[in-house]
Every structure is written in structure tokens, then in C-alpha cells.
Amino acid sequence: MALGRLGKYERVDVLGHGSSGIVYLAWDTLLKRQVALKEVDLQAADVERFLDEARLMDRLAHPNIVRVNAVDRIDGRVVIDMEYVRGRNLQDRLRVEGPVPLDEALSITAQVLDALDYAHRLKTVHRDIKPANILVGRDGSVKLADFGLAEVLATNAYACGAGTYAYMAPEDFAEEHNSDHRSDLWAVGASLYEMLTGERPFRVGRVRDPFAWRRALLEQRPRPLVEMMPDAPPALQTIIDKALAVDKHDRYASAAEFRDDVLAVAAGRALVHASIHGAEPRPSPAPPSHAGVATLAPATTITMAPPVVETVAPDAGDARRPFSIARLAARLSRRAPTAVSVSARPESVTFPAVRKGDTMFARVRLVPNGASGVHGRLSSTPTWLEATPIDVRGRRPVVRLKLLTERVWETGHVDSVVVFDTSCGKATIPVSAEVLPARPSFASVAFWFVPALACALFPSLIALLGTILVGTRHLAPAAAVVSAGLLALLLRAGSEADLGPRERAVAGGLLAAMMAVVGAAVGAMSHGRGLGYAGTMLAGGAMVSAVLVAQAVRPRLWKLWVFVTGALGLATGILLARVISLY
């Protein structure tokens, strides 16, 4: 999938996108390797701060951390060149396959914790541990991705609140900044719980509301593992309870301790850093009270009386109230909001039949419905199509589609879709094309085309020599007629053989030259200076015309007509040479 160049990188496909940017599968044209290229979405004021932190990220070299090859600014965009991991992220796997087997879940968790132990010892926390950032390779190896939101402990490079609500620890929601490496351990515990059960440990009704998540973390407790995994070892519940302790001081002190206990469960040994009997989670503290608001004890039950609704009988004069702008505005404000969507004009693109190796273009306009404008980004396109621009913005932006037939593996009918993620929803554009086999190259047709072309010109060359040596000018028009007819025969056969434009141009140019000679002869006859030309021209024209008529009846036998062209050219040339020898 071709998405255009960005510096030395050729963007091939979209691997994923999120709040922090979009990740492409790209080809490094200088080092000749595949990379994962992340285009980071930053405000202008944050660019320099991010680049400063990126220099510290460069020191993270661990087999379970996605390697960062380079961080650069290209065309005003901040990009991260990362190691490309052949596999899929844990979130996609959970969505498709459900819970992960116990042994594999413990192995994945141990590898993530090993990577975090390394990073934490370098005073760097991840701040966004979640299944989407855990990449599982085809060989079972685990890579922790997206340290782009990492925080250097000594500098507090990013304010609290980074990350994903479902995997954030209680302290991440606090107004004061008190998150540290133990917040990462909470996120690992939440991810382990989701791997084992297929569901997140905490649930809320409003998933985009941070206050709802904070309240859930303080008031809810995850369902016990035994309810969903009857065979789960008790030690595994102990690990989950310790990792998801509300007070961060009750959690594991380090990723290494967490990893040791996970490996102990995997090996069937006793826990090292947690006690099964002493692992009961601490009771959740009551939500902090605020000024002027009373805090209720957990056991207090409040019974609220139903609200009293006073009904007022309508006034008889209200049936016909005078027009009021205020009342009209209130009525309009109560109307249901208009649904916002985006459509393409035309709705689909069908390219005409095209030879492989050629390119074709089409234009599509994105039309917002229910909005004054649209902005978005290309998220999916087939390999054989290039869509520009990648970022669209405007009232009705235009997208240019370029059909790249050389990237079509097999000829025939191909179809796919181009998808844009926009502010008005997804814009899906079906695209189809009919790709025909490539035209033969000159090297593949020269062995028969060049001899046939020479044979077609042979009579004219003989007549030219006769005119120069013995003055037989009256034979030149007949030779030109024969050569012109043979060139027309060759052009018609070349059309069936699907010759390229260069071969047709050569034959057509020579045909025009022969017709110019015939025209000069006809002009000479009109002035009474070439009456002897008529007989030879009629003889040559009758012969060629008969062959052209036969070819028109059976045009598909182009190989036969190429042979006839060569044979007639040689025979006519030899005949002219014998006639000239009599003079």
C-alpha cells in the first residue's frame, strides 16, 4: 500500500493509530529495511520538549522493548523510526480470540515486567501500559512499544493524566502529581487480569469520564478469578490483589518483585514477595471530602422522596400566542441534532481497462453531511493505489487516486476500498480496475518486427537504387505504393500483436513518407509529366489491396500477415531488381 514519501521513508501501509499519532509500515530507502514509522501528533510548544526526552529514550536497549532507531523532524513533522515487529498487539488478539491460556499469559507478563524493570532502573516509566502497546511476535517474543509518552522521573516531562483510563492507577487521577513506577505495575496487573478473564477488572458506564473511572477504582473490586477460572491457583489471585492495591505502597515495590512472583506461579513454586494469607486488599478509603460538602459513611442509606411536580392548567389564551423570537429559538434548540456523516463524490471509482505498467488517475471529493467542513487522515488503501493527500482538510477536500498497475501481482479484475478517518466519520470509497497484461517490450518483438519492417521497405530501396544508377524513375511510384501497403499491413498486424507506441510510430512515419512519394507521383501525372507511372502504380496497388482485404477478414492471424508482409516485400524487390537490370 503506497501512502507517499516522507523524507527517506516510503510509507507502505497503516499499522495503527491512536491519540498520540499514527504508525506506518515504511521502507527505509537508504538502509533498505522495513521499519515502523510513527508520526507523533504534538502541539508546537511540545516539540522541543519531546525531542529532549527522545534523546533520553535512545538509551533504552532491551530485547523486550521496541528499539528506537531514530527520532527526526521531516517536513515539519516529528517522526519516530522504530523496529518493525512481525506479529500483532495483545489488544487485537484479545478482541478476536478472547482470554489467553494461563502459561502464555504468565510468559507475556514476565517479559513485560522484565522490560519495565530495566526501564525503571534507568529512572524511566512508561505511563501507558495497555494491551495495545504489548506486541507479541510470531515466535512468542514480547516487545513493549510506545515509550513516546514515557516520563523521566527526574524531570516530570509530561503532566499527570497521560495514558488510557482503563489501565490508569488511582494516583494517576489525582490533581497532585504522585505517580511513579508503581503506576506501571498497576497497569500490568490490569492487563494480566484481562488476559486471563477476557474482561477488564473495572467497568464504568461513561468510559470517557475520568471521574467515573476514579470513583470505580475507589469503590469497586474486580471479580475474583475463581468465578471465571475455577482452576486458577490461589497464588494468582494474590498477585492480582497485590498489583491492583488501591494504595500504591501496598503494591509490589519493583517490577522485578512482580516478575519473580509471576515466574513462581508459572513454575508451581511458592510466592516470594507476597503472602497468600496476608494479601487481602486494604479497604477502599472513602472519597475525600471537599469544602462545604458532607462525606457520608459507607453504611449510610439515603432515602429520597420523589420530586413533587406541580401541574398548571393551560390558559385559554395560550392557544394562539403572538409570534415570539425567543420561543422560536427555544423550539429550535429542542430539535434533535443533525446526524453528521461524510460521503464521497463519486461514491465509487472504476478505472477503465489499463495495461500493466501504465498509470491512471481519478479524483474523488469528500462531502461532509451536517457539518461545514471535514478534516481527517488516510487510514487504509490497497497496495496498487496511491491516495494523495494523506491528510485532508477543508469544506469539500479533493482526493487524487493514482492507479499503480506495476504493483498488481496478477492481471485481471482487482477491487478494494480506500478509507479515510475523518471528523465526520469514516469515508469508504470502493475502487476497482481491470488490469490487462503488459505490452511486449521491443526486445521481445524485434526478432520479427525489424525483419518485417525491412522487407516492407525493400521495394522502395531497390527503386531508389535504380533511379540513382540507371534513371528508372517511373518504377519509384509503384515501389512506394507497395511499401506503403506493406507498412499498413504491418501496422494492422502490430495492432493485433499489441505493439508498443514506439514501434507503431516508426511504422506510421515510414508509411507517411511512402504516401508522400505517391502523392508526388500523382502530382506529376496531373501535369502530364508522368503518364508512364500509372501502369506500375495500378499493378502494385491492386496486389497490396487484395492482401489488405484478406487481412481485414481474418485480422487475428497476425503472425501469418507478418510472414506475408515479408514475403511480398522480398518478392517485389527482387522483381524490381530484375526489371532494372534490363535497362
Task: Characterize the structure shown.
The chain is of the alpha+beta class. It has four domains: 1-84, Phosphorylase Kinase, domain 1 (2-Layer Sandwich), CATH 3.30.200; 86-282, Transferase(Phosphotransferase) domain 1 (Transferase(Phosphotransferase), domain 1, Orthogonal Bundle); 341-436, Immunoglobulin-like (Sandwich); 442-581, no CATH class. It is 38% helix and 21% strand. The chain is built from 14 helices and 21 strands. It has helices at 47-57, 90-97, 102-121, 181-197, 210-219, 225-228, 234-243, 255-267, 325-333, 442-469, 476-496, 501-526, 533-553, 558-581; strands at residues 5-6, 9-18, 21-28, 33-40, 68-74, 77-82, 87-89, 124-125, 134-137, 142-144, 151-152, 341-345, 349-350, 354-355, 359-369, 374-380, 385-388, 391-394, 398-404, 412-422, 425-436. The strands form five sheets. Strands 1-2-3-4-6-5 form a six-stranded antiparallel β-sheet, with helices on one face. Helix 3 (102-121) runs antiparallel to helix 4 (181-197). It is elongated, with a radius of gyration of 40 Å. 34% of the residues are buried.
